[in-house]
Write a structure and sequence with these properties.
- The complex is a heterodimer.
- Chain A is α/β, with parallel strands linked by helices.
- Chain A has one domain: STAS domain (Transcription Regulator spoIIAA, 2-Layer Sandwich), CATH 3.30.750.24.
- Helix content of chain A is 41%, strand content 26%.
- In chain A, strand 4, helix 3 and strand 5 form a beta-alpha-beta unit.
- The termini of chain A are far apart.
- Chain B is α+β, with helices and mostly antiparallel strands.
- Chain B is globular, with a radius of gyration of 15 Å.
- The chains are: A alpha/beta, B alpha+beta.
Chain lengths: 112, 149
Protein backbone atom coordinates (compact mmCIF):
# COMPACT_ATOMS: atom_id res chain seq x y z
CA UNK A 1 0.00 0.00 0.00
CA UNK A 2 1.16 3.49 -0.84
CA UNK A 3 0.71 6.09 1.88
CA UNK A 4 1.12 9.80 1.30
CA UNK A 5 0.67 12.34 4.08
CA UNK A 6 0.41 16.10 3.63
CA UNK A 7 -0.67 18.85 5.92
CA UNK A 8 -3.50 21.25 5.37
CA UNK A 9 -3.91 23.77 8.17
CA UNK A 10 -3.80 21.64 11.30
CA UNK A 11 -5.12 18.56 9.52
CA UNK A 12 -3.11 15.67 8.15
CA UNK A 13 -4.54 14.37 4.89
CA UNK A 14 -3.56 10.73 4.51
CA UNK A 15 -3.86 9.41 0.96
CA UNK A 16 -3.97 5.62 0.70
CA UNK A 17 -3.59 3.60 -2.45
CA UNK A 18 -4.18 -0.17 -2.45
CA UNK A 19 -6.03 -2.74 -0.39
CA UNK A 20 -6.26 -2.00 3.31
CA UNK A 21 -5.93 -5.54 4.62
CA UNK A 22 -3.95 -7.62 7.04
CA UNK A 23 -0.25 -7.69 6.44
CA UNK A 24 2.14 -4.98 5.27
CA UNK A 25 -0.67 -2.57 4.34
CA UNK A 26 -2.29 -2.43 7.77
CA UNK A 27 1.12 -2.53 9.45
CA UNK A 28 2.33 0.44 7.39
CA UNK A 29 -0.73 2.52 8.09
CA UNK A 30 -0.59 1.69 11.77
CA UNK A 31 3.04 2.76 11.95
CA UNK A 32 2.44 5.94 9.98
CA UNK A 33 -0.47 6.96 12.16
CA UNK A 34 1.23 6.05 15.42
CA UNK A 35 4.19 8.20 14.48
CA UNK A 36 1.94 11.10 13.56
CA UNK A 37 -0.09 10.85 16.74
CA UNK A 38 3.11 10.50 18.73
CA UNK A 39 4.32 13.72 17.13
CA UNK A 40 1.19 15.47 18.37
CA UNK A 41 -1.09 15.29 15.35
CA UNK A 42 -4.67 14.48 16.23
CA UNK A 43 -6.69 15.55 13.20
CA UNK A 44 -6.71 13.30 10.17
CA UNK A 45 -8.61 12.99 6.93
CA UNK A 46 -8.07 9.56 5.43
CA UNK A 47 -8.63 9.48 1.69
CA UNK A 48 -9.99 6.05 0.78
CA UNK A 49 -10.88 6.82 -2.84
CA UNK A 50 -8.18 4.41 -4.08
CA UNK A 51 -8.81 1.67 -1.54
CA UNK A 52 -11.03 -0.96 -3.18
CA UNK A 53 -11.28 -3.21 -0.13
CA UNK A 54 -10.93 -2.95 3.63
CA UNK A 55 -10.77 -6.20 5.60
CA UNK A 56 -11.58 -6.66 9.27
CA UNK A 57 -7.97 -5.90 10.22
CA UNK A 58 -8.20 -2.58 8.39
CA UNK A 59 -11.54 -1.83 10.00
CA UNK A 60 -10.13 -2.64 13.42
CA UNK A 61 -7.25 -0.26 12.83
CA UNK A 62 -9.56 2.56 11.71
CA UNK A 63 -11.78 2.07 14.76
CA UNK A 64 -8.79 2.06 17.08
CA UNK A 65 -7.35 5.17 15.46
CA UNK A 66 -10.68 6.91 15.80
CA UNK A 67 -10.75 6.15 19.50
CA UNK A 68 -7.16 7.18 20.15
CA UNK A 69 -7.43 10.47 18.26
CA UNK A 70 -10.73 11.32 19.93
CA UNK A 71 -9.13 10.72 23.31
CA UNK A 72 -6.64 13.41 22.34
CA UNK A 73 -9.30 15.86 21.27
CA UNK A 74 -9.06 15.09 17.57
CA UNK A 75 -10.56 12.58 15.16
CA UNK A 76 -10.12 10.74 11.91
CA UNK A 77 -12.60 11.38 9.13
CA UNK A 78 -13.06 9.32 5.99
CA UNK A 79 -12.89 10.79 2.52
CA UNK A 80 -14.51 9.22 -0.56
CA UNK A 81 -14.62 5.58 0.57
CA UNK A 82 -15.55 3.23 -2.26
CA UNK A 83 -19.03 1.79 -2.51
CA UNK A 84 -17.75 -1.58 -1.34
CA UNK A 85 -15.81 -0.06 1.56
CA UNK A 86 -18.97 1.72 2.69
CA UNK A 87 -20.90 -1.53 2.39
CA UNK A 88 -18.31 -3.34 4.50
CA UNK A 89 -18.20 -0.66 7.19
CA UNK A 90 -22.00 -0.62 7.32
CA UNK A 91 -22.17 -4.43 7.48
CA UNK A 92 -20.13 -4.56 10.67
CA UNK A 93 -21.97 -1.62 12.16
CA UNK A 94 -19.14 0.92 12.34
CA UNK A 95 -19.98 3.25 9.45
CA UNK A 96 -21.94 5.57 11.74
CA UNK A 97 -18.93 5.92 14.05
CA UNK A 98 -17.17 7.93 11.37
CA UNK A 99 -17.79 11.20 9.61
CA UNK A 100 -17.64 10.53 5.87
CA UNK A 101 -17.02 13.20 3.24
CA UNK A 102 -17.11 13.46 -0.54
CA UNK A 103 -14.77 16.44 -0.79
CA UNK A 104 -11.39 17.05 0.82
CA UNK A 105 -12.02 20.75 1.44
CA UNK A 106 -15.21 20.00 3.35
CA UNK A 107 -13.51 17.26 5.36
CA UNK A 108 -10.60 19.52 6.33
CA UNK A 109 -12.87 22.46 7.17
CA UNK A 110 -15.03 20.24 9.38
CA UNK A 111 -12.25 20.34 11.95
CA UNK A 112 -12.55 24.12 12.30
CA UNK B 1 2.47 -19.96 -2.55
CA UNK B 2 2.02 -23.35 -4.12
CA UNK B 3 -0.58 -23.33 -6.77
CA UNK B 4 -2.43 -26.03 -8.61
CA UNK B 5 -4.83 -25.36 -11.42
CA UNK B 6 -6.93 -28.34 -12.19
CA UNK B 7 -10.04 -29.06 -14.12
CA UNK B 8 -11.91 -32.25 -14.58
CA UNK B 9 -14.04 -33.33 -17.42
CA UNK B 10 -17.69 -33.14 -16.65
CA UNK B 11 -20.44 -35.41 -17.75
CA UNK B 12 -22.41 -32.42 -18.97
CA UNK B 13 -24.16 -32.01 -15.67
CA UNK B 14 -24.16 -28.43 -14.44
CA UNK B 15 -24.02 -29.70 -10.87
CA UNK B 16 -20.51 -31.06 -11.08
CA UNK B 17 -17.92 -28.83 -9.45
CA UNK B 18 -14.66 -28.12 -11.22
CA UNK B 19 -11.65 -27.31 -9.12
CA UNK B 20 -10.09 -24.17 -10.52
CA UNK B 21 -7.51 -23.34 -7.89
CA UNK B 22 -5.76 -25.18 -5.11
CA UNK B 23 -3.47 -22.89 -3.16
CA UNK B 24 -1.19 -23.54 -0.21
CA UNK B 25 0.55 -20.82 1.77
CA UNK B 26 2.73 -20.74 4.87
CA UNK B 27 0.89 -19.32 7.84
CA UNK B 28 2.20 -15.77 7.85
CA UNK B 29 0.26 -12.55 7.40
CA UNK B 30 2.27 -11.40 4.39
CA UNK B 31 1.14 -14.46 2.42
CA UNK B 32 -2.61 -13.98 2.85
CA UNK B 33 -3.04 -11.40 0.12
CA UNK B 34 -1.51 -13.73 -2.47
CA UNK B 35 -4.46 -16.07 -1.98
CA UNK B 36 -7.04 -13.30 -2.18
CA UNK B 37 -5.40 -11.85 -5.28
CA UNK B 38 -5.25 -15.24 -7.02
CA UNK B 39 -8.92 -15.84 -6.25
CA UNK B 40 -9.74 -12.38 -7.57
CA UNK B 41 -7.85 -12.92 -10.80
CA UNK B 42 -9.56 -16.24 -11.38
CA UNK B 43 -12.99 -14.78 -10.75
CA UNK B 44 -12.22 -11.93 -13.13
CA UNK B 45 -11.31 -14.50 -15.75
CA UNK B 46 -14.68 -16.13 -15.19
CA UNK B 47 -16.40 -12.79 -15.75
CA UNK B 48 -17.86 -12.80 -12.26
CA UNK B 49 -19.48 -9.38 -11.70
CA UNK B 50 -17.40 -6.94 -9.68
CA UNK B 51 -19.67 -6.72 -6.65
CA UNK B 52 -19.85 -10.50 -6.34
CA UNK B 53 -16.11 -10.79 -6.86
CA UNK B 54 -15.35 -8.26 -4.13
CA UNK B 55 -17.67 -10.02 -1.69
CA UNK B 56 -16.05 -13.38 -2.36
CA UNK B 57 -12.53 -11.97 -2.14
CA UNK B 58 -13.22 -10.29 1.18
CA UNK B 59 -14.74 -13.48 2.58
CA UNK B 60 -11.70 -15.43 1.40
CA UNK B 61 -9.39 -12.83 2.94
CA UNK B 62 -11.16 -13.20 6.28
CA UNK B 63 -11.16 -17.00 6.15
CA UNK B 64 -7.49 -17.25 5.28
CA UNK B 65 -6.54 -14.71 7.95
CA UNK B 66 -8.43 -16.80 10.50
CA UNK B 67 -6.60 -19.88 9.31
CA UNK B 68 -3.24 -18.16 9.64
CA UNK B 69 -3.85 -16.37 12.93
CA UNK B 70 -6.12 -18.75 14.85
CA UNK B 71 -5.54 -22.05 13.10
CA UNK B 72 -1.78 -21.79 12.83
CA UNK B 73 -0.90 -19.11 15.41
CA UNK B 74 1.11 -17.33 12.71
CA UNK B 75 3.55 -20.25 12.54
CA UNK B 76 5.05 -20.16 9.04
CA UNK B 77 6.03 -23.81 9.32
CA UNK B 78 2.31 -24.61 9.14
CA UNK B 79 0.23 -24.35 6.00
CA UNK B 80 -3.20 -23.03 5.08
CA UNK B 81 -4.92 -24.28 1.96
CA UNK B 82 -7.59 -22.68 -0.16
CA UNK B 83 -9.57 -24.37 -2.94
CA UNK B 84 -11.84 -22.69 -5.44
CA UNK B 85 -14.47 -24.70 -7.30
CA UNK B 86 -17.34 -23.77 -9.52
CA UNK B 87 -20.10 -25.54 -11.40
CA UNK B 88 -21.70 -24.98 -14.78
CA UNK B 89 -24.33 -22.70 -13.30
CA UNK B 90 -21.76 -20.27 -11.90
CA UNK B 91 -22.07 -21.40 -8.32
CA UNK B 92 -18.81 -21.04 -6.48
CA UNK B 93 -17.55 -22.87 -3.43
CA UNK B 94 -14.35 -22.02 -1.62
CA UNK B 95 -12.80 -24.23 1.03
CA UNK B 96 -10.16 -22.93 3.43
CA UNK B 97 -8.42 -25.42 5.70
CA UNK B 98 -5.89 -25.09 8.46
CA UNK B 99 -4.22 -27.72 10.66
CA UNK B 100 -5.45 -26.21 13.91
CA UNK B 101 -7.80 -27.72 16.49
CA UNK B 102 -10.77 -25.64 15.41
CA UNK B 103 -12.80 -23.37 17.64
CA UNK B 104 -16.12 -23.01 19.37
CA UNK B 105 -18.42 -21.07 17.07
CA UNK B 106 -20.65 -20.17 19.99
CA UNK B 107 -17.75 -18.36 21.63
CA UNK B 108 -17.61 -15.75 18.90
CA UNK B 109 -19.15 -12.53 20.12
CA UNK B 110 -21.48 -10.41 18.02
CA UNK B 111 -19.23 -7.61 16.76
CA UNK B 112 -22.17 -5.22 16.53
CA UNK B 113 -23.17 -5.49 20.16
CA UNK B 114 -22.16 -3.02 22.84
CA UNK B 115 -18.48 -2.47 23.37
CA UNK B 116 -17.62 -5.01 20.67
CA UNK B 117 -18.39 -2.30 18.15
CA UNK B 118 -15.28 -0.45 19.28
CA UNK B 119 -13.02 -3.51 19.27
CA UNK B 120 -10.10 -3.75 16.91
CA UNK B 121 -10.78 -7.41 16.10
CA UNK B 122 -13.53 -10.04 16.04
CA UNK B 123 -15.35 -9.22 12.80
CA UNK B 124 -13.99 -11.89 10.47
CA UNK B 125 -16.51 -14.70 10.90
CA UNK B 126 -19.38 -12.24 10.95
CA UNK B 127 -18.24 -10.75 7.63
CA UNK B 128 -17.88 -14.19 6.05
CA UNK B 129 -21.44 -15.08 6.98
CA UNK B 130 -22.78 -11.78 5.70
CA UNK B 131 -20.88 -11.84 2.41
CA UNK B 132 -21.40 -15.46 1.35
CA UNK B 133 -24.70 -17.20 0.65
CA UNK B 134 -23.93 -20.33 2.65
CA UNK B 135 -21.17 -21.09 5.14
CA UNK B 136 -20.35 -24.39 6.83
CA UNK B 137 -17.69 -24.98 9.44
CA UNK B 138 -16.30 -28.49 9.32
CA UNK B 139 -13.70 -30.40 11.31
CA UNK B 140 -14.45 -28.41 14.43
CA UNK B 141 -13.90 -25.14 12.61
CA UNK B 142 -10.54 -25.85 11.03
CA UNK B 143 -12.24 -26.08 7.65
CA UNK B 144 -14.66 -23.53 6.29
CA UNK B 145 -16.76 -24.06 3.17
CA UNK B 146 -18.31 -20.99 1.62
CA UNK B 147 -20.81 -20.87 -1.24
CA UNK B 148 -21.74 -17.98 -3.48
CA UNK B 149 -24.65 -18.56 -5.86
Amino acid sequence: MDINVRKRSEVQVVQLRGQLRMGPAVDSLRQTMEEAVGAGDTRFVINLSEVPMIDSSGIGLLVRLLASTKQRGGSIKLLQPSKFAIQTLRLVGVLNLFEVYDAEDTAVQSFS
Amino acid sequence: MKRGLMSSKTDGSNDEMRELLHLTIPAKSEAVSSVTDAIGETLTGLDVPEQKRLEICLAVQEAVVNGVVHGCANDPSKMVTCQLRCDGDGRIVIVVTDPGPGFNLKSIADPKQGENLYADHGRGVYLIRELMDEVHFERGGSEIRMWKY
